[in-house]
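Ticket #393: bound-state structure for pyridoxal-5'-phosphate.
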Amino acid sequence: MKDTLHYIDEWIDQLKEEGVYRELPVNTGPCDHVIELEGETIVNMSSNNYLGLANNERVKKAACDAVKTYGAGAGSVRTIVGNQDLLEDVEDLLADFKEEEAAIVFQSGLNCNIGTIQAIVKKGDLIVSDELNHASIIDGIRLCKADKAIFNHSDMNDLERVLKEKRKDYERCLIITDGVFSMDGDLAKLPSIVDMAEKYDCLTYVDDAHGSGVLGRSGRGTVDHYGLHGKIDFIIGTLSKAIGVIGGYVATKENVKKWLLHRARPLLFSTALPPAALGAIKESLTILSESDEHTKKLWSNANYFKKHLRKMGFDIGHSQTPITPVMVGNEAKTMTFSKQLLDEGVFVSGIVFPTVPKGKGRLRVMISASHTQKDLDFALEKFEKVGKTLKLI
Ligand SMILES: *Cc1c(COP(=O)(O)O)cnc(C)c1O
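RESOLUTION: The complex was predicted; output attached.
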């Protein structure tokens, strides 16, 4: 018989030659400040569980309680009979938290971008997108009928060049940017983007997956951090990172919500979030609105860790958030760094092409409020040891 899938083996061999093929680690416990890999307890520096809410006792209990009352699954897409009151409660809490008119929840951040972008623009419109925007934005743009133009990362002159050249040829123009860029941890220049949108009559769309729960008052996000409430038309967030559960949302105007309930394909063709997730999200949002204790701890942990990495001589890029890239460059060396840290008891994922450009390999350290002082000092000691072995410092 002809081996029709042989080409896949060749593709995999190619990955192996490049030194980037990997087996997935299997965590046999919760994704907390430590994880369990092959019977060993390892300090976890790679989760997006920024505030530790994924393992918060109140949040876990809320998930269990929701299952007892509402069952395990939503049973339907939202637009048929999947619209449980828990989902409406979460949206009300989110609208309050983000200080926007309305919020509409999707099954994930990726779903949210894919479903929203194609619903809010048409043929004859233009999308102008930062070159480093998240993959789910890129996919969302690919699925819509508008034209697209890319501007150089956070380069406002280049954004203006594109708008000057193209804006006049289109009915509507939507500027899309990440709020926090996930690979370098830098912030979008939102005040300038808002000015540019006003000058050229554009709509604004900010994907704040890494900003929500992290920046602004009690983690209200990048828009709050810059004091730009009311100036961004579509604010995307995820419930899967700092909120600790799963899901995505758009915080926006009431009429946009009504429209998306009719036209956002993930809401029409994919089952609604399960009760356990919704119960947990409600509790996470309640916790955030009660106190800024978790966000404060996150920032003090991140500042401590970054200060010491810098002192040791590592190149940690220009991050403005708890996302801490440790630059390596070469792809294979990046993976070796990650592997040797793991042998020492610290998990930090290596990020290489195609997630970042070729030659820009790095480790990406994700600090969490759940890390103890002991975790941080242990990891710093191991970074210094392996960094010296690999002659990075
Ligand atoms: C993580 C991320 C997403 C995807 O969110 P999920 O809820 O994990 O699907 C979308 N956009 C950005 C900018 C992200 O960083």
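RESOLUTION NOTES: The pocket of pyridoxal-5'-phosphate is lined by residues 108-110, 113, 134, 136, 178, 182, 207, 209-210, 238, 240, 248 (CB under 6 Å).
TICKET STATUS: resolved
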